[in-house]
Every structure is written in C-alpha cells, then in structure tokens.
User: What shape does this take?
Amino acid sequence: MTRAHNFCAGPAALPQPVLERAQAEFLNWSDIGASVMEVSHRSPAFMEVAQQAEASLRRLMAVSDDYAVLFLQGGASLQFAAVPLNLSAPGQSVDQVVTGQWSKKALLEGQRFGSVNVAATSEGSGFTTVPPQNGWQVDSSATYLHYCPNETIGGLEFDFVPQIDVPLVADMSSTILSRPIDVNQFGVLYAGAQKNIGPAGLCLVVVHRELLGRARAEAPAMLNWKTAADNDSMYNTPPTFALYLTGLVFEWLENLGGLEEMEAINRRKAGKLYHLIDNSDFYSNPVETVSRSLMNVPFTRADDGLDPVFLQEAEAVRLLNLKGHRSVGGMRASLYNAVEEASVDALCDFMQDFEQRHG
Assistant: This one.
C-alpha cells in the first residue's frame, strides 16, 4: 500500500524504515518469542534498549555527562508544572516569554505555583513576531527564564537563543532533532516525543545535573527530576514500546548522517513551501520572515471560503492533516523529520494546481 503524505502537527509522521522494522519485530522481538511490549522493563534485553537510546541521543545532540537525560511520561504539558516545581521555591519569581499558544499554556500552569513575570509577549501582534531581547523586562530575582523556541500552532520560531544570567528552560517539542542545538546554552530542554522523537506518550528532558535536587518538598515523586535521574527513568514502568521506537528513530537519524544532514533536508523542504507561498497572490503566511518556523508552515487566503474545498481536495489525493489549528484557522503543513521531501513536492504541486483552478 502506498503511504499518504502526512503533514500532521502531532502525533506526526514516523520514518517508514522505523515502522517497517517495528512491524517485522512486532511479534518476535530480539528472537525471544514475544513482543518488546510484553517484556519486563528491567530485563537485561530491554535495559540495553534504554541505554542504547540514551547513548544515541547523546551522540546526536552532543550531550555531555554534565546533563541527565530523562525519558518521562505525560508529554511536554506535564513539564509545564514540573519546571516550576523543580526550579523554584514558594515565593520565588520566574521569567517567561510568551509567543504563542503553548508558551501561554505554560504561563497559566506556572502561575499555579507562584509569581510569573512575563518578560515579553507578542500577543499584541497575534503571535506573528518574536520580541527582540533588548526590549525584554526580566525580573532580576527570577530563578529561571522559560520560552518556547518554536510555536507549533502559529508557526513562529526564534532565530536566536536568549542570553541570560539564570538557567534557560526551553520547550523544544517542535525543534528538537530537526537541526544541531548547543545544549550547553540551556539549563533544561524538554520535548514531547510526538513530533521528531517518536510516538506520543513519551517526554524527553535534558537537565543540567547542578539543577537536580532543588525540587520543592511537595513535588510529587513522578515530577521530581532527581527521582527520575536516580532511577534511570525507571522509577515506575516506562512506556516501553514508545521508548523502543524512539531508539529506532535515533538510530535512523544517525544512519542518515546526523542532525547536520537532517537540517539540510529540512531547510530544503521548508524553503520550497515558503517560496511557493511568497510568490503567490493566492496564499500568504502571517509570520514575519525572520521568525518563520522550519517545522510548521501555516498559510491562509484572503477569502477563506475555499478552505473546506482545499482540504477536501487535498485529502482526495492523500495529502493529510493540513487543517490549521482551530485557534488560528487556515491551513498548516508540519514538516517534521519523517516528512519526506517528495511529500512537500506533492503538496506544492497540488497548491499550484488549486490556485490555477480557483484563483
């Protein structure tokens, strides 16, 4: 069966070689006569899976031993609570930059645990710009600064890493593994798996070891990063199948040539789609050019009356999940790592044909 072109924002496409290998091993993994989902997470065979996944990630991202790598549950949204519980004491203030729906949700969750200073926001522009850092109003007593480098819903992306004197915390859900990242610039990185890492249900946290052990006394054990680090992410039963698939994705990326090669592919994909949009009087992208996302490309039309027709015709030719988020409307193509360049070519061809027929 020919696979469809899947532009879903998450759960997103997975690499076909990874799916084919998982399919081949599904009933008889590692020649033990059982699925990887059916074995103990503490068995030597599965412990090796977890260890290899961590080692592969460390190679891909050049993560030093100064950082703990945690494979957790609950998705990135659970970390909206874990971050303040691990990095701030009651009564302490924290800084946050709000540039879209996800950083806005992180703000609302963080406010449950204490004072949050909004150092900058682009809500006034409809989240189509990134506030220049020289205009931020940071709190000199803040214990960390949190931001979201790529806002999935609005297709807004930072073209710089903030330079600050406190630990920098980043929700990297849509950015991680799409290109090289200097981990040493951050105190904490976290990311939901369902975009570039693996299946939904897993969350990756990379945290500097000097930040461990600061959790509030009332922090639940399952949200305490030190508890997870001390137990090799196995304080409880981890999502074993998701972790297994994640390891296969890491292996696929290494075989591809690493994150430098992945970045080159991703820039070609995004470049083709943005070029089409920018050279069209039919489609438009609302985000300032310098802040456009490499991973999530929203596009709209001045008259949205044809949107349902666009989506219906796109699905008929197996271009899936192009409907924009309900909060912004229009269309959105998410171009995560596993979205092949041929899929972007197919989308561009369809968009040009649709414009010719309906423009």
Summary: The CA atoms of residues 298 and 332 lie 4 Å apart. The chain has a mean pLDDT of 96.
